[in-house]
Write a structure and sequence with these properties.
By secondary structure, the protein is α/β, with parallel strands linked by helices. Helix content is about 35%, strand content about 25%. It contains 9 helices and 13 strands.
């Protein structure tokens, strides 16, 4: 069985706006899209409905050159959607329940031999997909990278912390860190405590406009900042862009400072574009990652 660098497990969905616009996304899907553009051909494992939205996802993946062998089709549940409404001009998000990605079937998992398995937390809200992930980990041991996405009301602290006990690497944002780690006075304290508590190889915390921090093996905190002249168009998916490059750095054993800087550079470029993914392959060719 050939070795694949990355397995990506979780949701793919459409953000549905009041004016009828639908935007393709889902954190794991975004990460897989970026990794494929950088030449790593990840195995994306998810589930879509037997509906028009599902066909659009299949077409988008095929047009991008992504394999669809890990994409299951559900005859009973619809392709994932997030309903977006505007309240006083501000968007409000409602993640719909019982979507196809909630029912990823362990019996339909593809055979794979991956080096790193990425997953988030949203797709684990339903026991069917959670059981599929456990089956995948049991059948194909790999380094585990968890990208936390705490979306109310679809998470419980004790459950999330239980998943994190199996992580080798963890990425989350600063607000999520505060929600999961009560001890420690400063953000750096909380990072060190959580890393030690979970026995992590690495912990990465994104801080929005303030850049990102990571903790090294010696518990030293490393920081990066975005460029000052950044022209922000859309911050949706910036964290997913960051995760994709961190995964590449872990695969190649880059120094942590190098991982963070390359990840920050790519995320900064993405926020100058509209949307969480870019459908221009040339955009990705501008990034020549090196150590």
């Amino acid at each position: 069985m050939p070795t694949q660098p990355f397995g990506i497990f979780g949701e793919v969905l459409f953000d549905c706006f009041p004016d009828g616009v639908q935007v393709l996304g889902g954190a794991p899907f975004n990460v897989a899209w970026h990794l494929h553009a950088f030449g790593y051909a990840p195995l994306f494992i998810s589930r879509i409905g037997a509906d028009e939205a599902g066909k659009l996802i299949q077409t988008a993946m095929q047009n991008w050159g992504m394999a669809t062998t890990g994409l299951q089709i559900d005859p009973h549940h619809a392709t994932g959607q997030v309903a977006i409404t505007l309240c006083d001009g501000e968007p409000e998000y409602r993640i719909l329940d019982h979507q196809a990605y909630d029912y990823i079937d362990a019996e339909q998992l593809p055979a794979t031999n991956m080096q790193i398995l990425y997953h988030g937390s949203l797709a684990l809200r339903h026991p069917v997909s959670a059981q599929a992930l456990e089956a995948l980990k049991n059948r194909h041991p790999a380094k585990i990278f968890i990208d936390v996405n705490l979306r109310s009301p679809w998470w419980h602290k004790s459950q999330v912390l239980a998943w994190l006990n199996n992580a080798d690497w963890l990425k989350l944002n600063d607000l999520e860190l505060l929600q999961l780690e009560a001890d420690g006075q400063t953000l750096a304290d909380k990072m060190r405590i959580l890393k030690q508590r979970l026995n992590l190889e690495g912990l990465v915390v994104t801080c929005g406009a303030n850049g990102a921090k990571a903790i090294a093996a010696d518990d030293a905190i490393i920081e990066v900042k975005p460029p000052e002249n950044l022209c922000v168009v859309d911050t949706v998916g910036a964290g997913d862009a960051f995760s994709a490059v961190v995964l590449i750095g872990i695969l190649h054993n880059w120094p942590l400072q190098v991982i963070l800087q390359h990840a920050q550079d790519f995320a900064a470029a993405l926020v100058e574009k509209r949307g969480a993914i870019v459908m221009d392959a040339g955009f990705y060719q501008n990034f020549k990652f090196s150590v």
